[in-house]
């Protein structure tokens, strides 16, 4: 019969295994989506591919922080809030450049890349769902990122369809900016959770 200590060890191992799988999935699809984004010139895919790199970094940081004190975990959560903003800033930069050269991306490649990203993010969100309230702001950050990215991927698939109908660069630009807004909101939620943990630790 497993005691309380054994249950905690098992839970810790399960969390480590989950975030390792999620980090590997995110890092792998980052390379795929980034290459497609550069090939077809898509702002929304650039933003989403950087999200995958961000998610891989978050989950790697979770692995490092699992042994931290509650106060250190709260500080790491605050750092993650800043990390989540990075893709939004990259998106704004790409959107500004695209605004002056509004060439529509290839719609079929855009939708297919979005569908692949959706499959990866739904898988990651399902893996992390059971841990989102058990690991503090760190696992909450990872779950929020996977959830928000899955929502963004649905929008990217729709962007491909809209681009095919209109042959316009604007749907891609609009979705890219919306992804940036979602990242900002996720950063706010993680920052608030980390501040509450810091107060509790104090």
Could you give a short description of this structure?
By secondary structure, the chain is an all-alpha fold. The chain is 88% helix and 0% strand. It has helices at residues 4-40, 43-65, 70-100, 107-129, 136-166, 170-201.
Structure overview:
- By secondary structure, the protein is mainly α.
- Helices cover 88% and strands 0% of the residues.
- It is built from 6 helices and no strands.
- It has helices at 4-40, 43-65, 70-100, 107-129, 136-166, 170-201.
- The longest helix has 37 residues, at 4-40.
- The radius of gyration is 18 Å and the shape is elongated.
- The termini are far apart.
- The model has no long low-confidence stretch (mean pLDDT 82).
Report mean pLDDT, rounded to a whole number.
Answer: 82
Give the uncertain stretches in residue-range form. Answer: none
Specify Rg, calculated over alpha carbons: 18 Å
Strand content: under 5%
Helix content: over 70%
- What is the straight-line distance between the termini? 36 Å
Query: Overall 3D geometry?
Result: elongated
Topology order in helix (H) and strand (E) letters: HHHHHH
Q: Helices and strands: which structural class?
A: mainly alpha
How does the major sheet shape up? none
User: How many beta strands in the DSSP annotation?
Assistant: 0
Number of helices: 6
């Amino acid at each position: 019969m497993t005691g309380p200590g054994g249950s905690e060890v098992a839970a810790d191992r399960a969390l480590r295994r989950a975030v390792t799988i999620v980090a590997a999935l995110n890092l792998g699809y980052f390379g795929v989506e980034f290459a497609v984004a550069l090939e077809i010139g898509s702002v929304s895919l650039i933003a989403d591919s950087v999200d995958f790199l961000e998610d891989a970094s978050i989950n790697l940081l979770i692995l490092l922080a699992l042994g931290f004190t509650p106060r250190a975990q709260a500080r790491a959560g605050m750092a993650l809030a800043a990390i989540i903003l990075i893709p939004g800033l990259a998106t704004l930069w790409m959107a500004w450049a695209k605004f002056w050269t509004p060439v529509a991306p290839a719609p079929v490649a855009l939708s297919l890349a979005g569908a692949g990203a959706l499959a990866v993010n739904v898988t990651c969100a399902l893996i992390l769902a059971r841990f989102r309230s058990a690991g503090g702001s760190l696992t909450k950050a990872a779950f929020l990122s996977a959830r928000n990215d899955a929502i963004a991927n649905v929008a990217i698939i729709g962007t491909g369809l809209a681009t095919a109908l209109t042959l316009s660069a604007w749907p891609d630009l609009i979705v890219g900016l919306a992804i940036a807004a979602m990242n900002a909101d996720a950063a706010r939620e993680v920052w608030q959770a980390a501040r509450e943990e810091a107060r509790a630790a104090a």
